[in-house]
């Protein structure tokens, strides 16, 4: 008797990157995962750090922010950013420009699909991209979601040259709250929530989800 292994449905993969992988990136990771899954979009969201505090859990402040914004504060283990993690992602989102530069230096082809969180939210807001049409017979299968989302990321990349950068380049960065005051934690959390909200809405629309 010949047994066969069931085919694993393809999933759109997002990688979120910050410095230590204990503050900004796990917060964005959990918010993206929760909101995309709630919309019925089959995704895998991971996070990593350019100088990761490998094995550490997220900071307690992150747990509090997840409770505020609707993410799951389950156990987290920080991991180091690697070329393999970048190459396996369909979209890479970073906390700041320095993280985006590190991603591209490790895997140059990622320049096509790597943005800071604020940058991607700005591109989406300033140059809305229409959802990609697919065959009606696809019935929004996992593969259909994957193809739509990959096509959407390619379309967004084409808008970069038509959207002016912010007057202050720092506006594309999210402040690092590590060992900072509660006010800084709150500001960082609001910025991540705002960016994730814009990005999630666009991805759900692009995928044909609800």
- Please give the alpha-carbon distance between the first and last residues: 42 Å
Largest sheet: 4 strands, parallel
Strand-pairing-aware structural class: alpha/beta
The strands making up the biggest β-sheet line up spatially as 2-1-3-4
The share of residues in extended strands comes to 5-15%
How many structural units, i.e. domains?
1
Mean pLDDT: 90
The CATH architecture name reads: 3-Layer(aba) Sandwich
Topology order in helix (H) and strand (E) letters: EHEHHEHEHHH
**CA radius of gyration:** 17 Å
Backbone shape: globular
For this structure, the CATH topology is Rossmann fold
Output the CATH homologous superfamily.
Response regulator
Q: Can you tell me the residue ranges where pLDDT is under 50 for at least 5 consecutive residues?
A: none
């Amino acid at each position: 008797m010949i047994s066969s292994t069931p085919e694993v449905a393809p999933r759109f993969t997002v990688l979120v990157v910050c410095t230590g992988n204990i503050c900004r990136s796990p917060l964005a990771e959990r918010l993206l995962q929760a909101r995309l899954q709630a919309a019925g979009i089959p995704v895998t969201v991971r996070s990593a750090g350019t100088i990761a505090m490998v094995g550490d859990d997220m900071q307690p402040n992150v747990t509090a922010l997840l409770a505020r914004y609707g993410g799951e504060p389950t156990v987290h283990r920080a991991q180091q950013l690697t070329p393999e993690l970048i190459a396996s992602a369909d979209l890479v989102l970073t906390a700041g420009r320095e993280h985006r530069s590190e991603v591209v230096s490790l895997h140059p082809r990622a320049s096509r699909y790597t943005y800071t969180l604020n940058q991607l939210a700005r591109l989406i807001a300033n140059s809305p991209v229409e959802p990609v049409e697919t065959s009606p017979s696809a019935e929004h299968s996992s593969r259909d979601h994957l193809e739509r989302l990959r096509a959407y990321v390619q379309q967004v990349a084409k808008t970069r040259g038509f959207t002016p950068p912010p007057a202050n380049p720092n506006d594309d960065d999210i402040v690092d709250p590590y060992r900072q005051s509660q006010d800084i934690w709150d500001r960082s959390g609001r910025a991540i929530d705002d960016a994730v909200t814009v990005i999630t809405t666009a991805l759900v629309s692009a995928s044909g989800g609800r």
